[in-house]
Structure formats: C-alpha cells, structure tokens
Amino acid sequence: MSIDPHLSPSRPVSGRRLPGTHPFKLGLFSFNTGGGLTHTLAPERWDASWPNMRRLARDAEDAGLEFVLPLAGWKGNMGEAESDGYFHETMAWAAGLLEATQKIHVFATLHVPFINPVFAAKQAVTCDHIGSGRLGLNLVAGFNIAEFDMMGVEYRAHDARYAYLDEWLTVVRRLWTESVPFDHHGEVFDLRGLVGIPKPYGAELPMVVSAGSSLTGREFALNNADALFMLVTDIDTIADELRSIRASMPNREINIFCSGHIICRRTAKETQSYYDYLLHEHGDWAAGRYLQKSYEEIKSVPLEIVRSPAFLNRMMSGSGTLPVVGDPDEVVATLSRLHAAGINGMAFALPDYIKDFGLFREEVIPRLIDAGLRTGE
After folding, report:
1. In which element (H, E) is residue 45 found?
2. CA angle centred on 198, ends 221 and 192, rounded to 5°
3. Which of 96, 184, 320, 331 could share a disulfide with 191, CB 3.0–4.6 Å?
4. What structural domains does the chain harbor?
5. Mean pLDDT score of the chain
6. How far apart are CA 353 and CA 34, in angstroms?
7. Which of 23, 24, 45, 43 is nearest to 34 (CA)?
8. What number is the average pLDDT over the span 149-168?
9. Contacts of 39 (CB under 8 A, 6+ apart)
10. What phi and psi, each to the nearest 5 degrees, are found at residue 120?
11. To 10 degrees, what angle do helices 50-62 and 90-100 make?
C-alpha cells in the first residue's frame, strides 16, 4: 500500500484501527504521571516508576486491552503530594513502551504549541518504526497559562490555539505523505524546503485522536482526528449528544471514546470504604481545587457544573473524568450504558494501577464478556 499524496492533510487519513474485534475498546490512561488522576496522599498513590509503567503496559496487553494513553503535563497541580508535577514526557515514554510490548497501541500526548511540527513529525515516525506501526498521537492545544509561561510560548486565545493546532497538523501530515520537498506559508508557520524521511511504518499514518469539550475543540477533533475523546458530564444525556454529533457527519464514521476513572472493589461496601479512604481521609484537596479553578478559566464545561461539589469530587477522584465507582457488577452496568448510548470505548485511570488492574482483569473483564462488550478473544 502506498500513501496517496493528494489526500487532504487536514482530514483523517490513517488506515489503522485499534486491534481486536471487541465492541467496547479499553485503554489505560495517565499512568505516566505520579498519582495518575487520583489526588490522594494515601500510600497507595501511584508510583510512576519505569518498572511499574512497563509492567502495567505488559499486563494491559496480556489482558487484551487495545491501547495505553498518557497525560501530558509540565508543572503539576499545586498539590501537597511530593510527586505532584511528576510527568514523564510522552513521546520518549511511548518509544520505551512500544519497544517493551508487541500488540498494544501506544499513544503519545503532545502539547502542540510546545513542539516544532518538523521535529514532531520525525520523532513520531521514529517511534512508529520502533513499534512497527503502533504509535498514535493525542493532540492537545494546551490550556494552562502557567505552562505556556514556563515554555516562553505565547498564550493565544482559545479558538486561535485550535487554529494553530490545525495548521501544525497540516504540516505534519504533509511531511508524512509528500515525497517532494515543499514550502509552507501559513498564518503561524513560514517554513521552507520541508522533507520528511523515513515515512511512517508500513505506509499507513499514525492514528490521531483529540479531546474537545468546547465547541471549537470538538469541531477540530471531528474534522481532523481519527477518534474523538469526549468528556461525559451526564450519562443520561450522552446518547442524544452522540446522535447529534454523528448526524452532523453523514459522510464518514468516527470512533467516539470517553475518558474516565474506575474505583472498584469486590463489594459495594468495600468500594465505598476505599473511595472514602482515598479522598476523604487522605485527599490532596489543594490539587483538586487548583484543577477546579483551571476548569473555570478555560470555560469548556458550564460554570454551574464546574463549581458544584459533585464536580470537585470528580476532580479529586479522577481529575474531572467520568467516575465509575462501584463493585464489578456496577462497573459493567455503567460501561454497558455508555456502550448502549454509542460510546465506542473508554480510556480509564485507576488509583493504584497494578493492584487495581489485577482486580479489574479478574472480576470486571469476564463480566464484560458476558455482557457482550468484549469478545473473550
């Protein structure tokens, strides 16, 4: 197969799909960060050491999960935990895990304003060859002004950041697809004599995914990405929202995933005790309130939701992602509701990834097979 150089670089052109035939895809989220997504000071706070991350990625692959997805960050959440702000850079992280695994797809999350597109295109292709075509990119426009200050990069207005991202991706995809040197003269970049060799592995482009809660962010993802990651604020209304999204795109299919966090023990009582232990007995509330304030500033979620006690609890337990809290049957019931509504899969975090994933693999995955969300392959 050869790449068609005439494909529009601003449209999804990846021929790749996540492996397997499971109706509901699963991926582990944010285990490249100290603490993951749960803001707790408990001893169970996730230790993002390289041996732990490598073991977890292999465990996820052995259990049949389709992908792993990191969280990019540079500054932290001003919390009290010693490992607050402990982020492994995600492209190097992806390279290591692609070498350590054989089947699972590994995404890198890129804050696009912080990385030159020519460099990023080459770096991504290198990782893609390491993993024999298993690299994906999760593109982020950036929102934390403190991180822009840290990098010495201009903090553009919200819509302008997505215009920047769109042009950045255009350059990257041209480097991946075009064989003749070219110039690019755009609103943001003025580049001359561009060439990108080698090309992505197997003449197929890496998958590109993006998460957008605002209208502009979602529009970018729908127009440019191979999959959209949604922030689900209300499961009861998500089916109507998904129907509207898909009706607006009659000419192509796009996978729509959500991000979440799972807190699960064998019984409902044990789960509630674990939740209370992590948050109410040992919660890092400084980090949770910092994140809540950040959501107020970016205005991608209605303020009445962001300022509610329930959303602060979501910040504490999973940095604002969808909480899935309960025993194994309750977890499967929630994932089944998401699937029935039209969600194609979930990237999920766990408080203590290795220990909690063992329980998930033992108790939840068999129930997902029985529910028809996984095939048992």
Report:
1. none
2. 75
3. 184
4. 25-369 (3.20.20.30)
5. 93
6. 11
7. 45
8. 95
9. 77, 79, 81, 283, 284, 285, 287, 288, 291, 315, 316, 317, 319
10. -65, -40
11. 50
Q: Distance between CA atoms of 195 and 343, rounded to whole angstroms?
A: 38
Whether the CB-CB separation of 324 and 347 falls below 8 Å is answered with no
Nearest CA-CA partner of 186 in 123, 111, 138, 117: 117
Phi-psi region of 36 (alpha: psi -120 to 50; beta: other; left: phi over 0): left
Classified as helix, coil or strand, 211 is strand
Residue appearing with tokens 């769109």: 166
Name residues whose C-beta falls within 8 Å of residue 308's C-beta, 6 or more positions apart in sequence: none
Q: How far apart are CA 89 and CA 32, in angstroms?
A: 8
Predicted confidence (pLDDT) per residue in 85-141, tens digit = 999 999 999 999 999 999 999 999 999 999 999 999 999 999 999 999 999 999 999
Distance, CA of 118 to CA of 102 (rounded, Å): 28
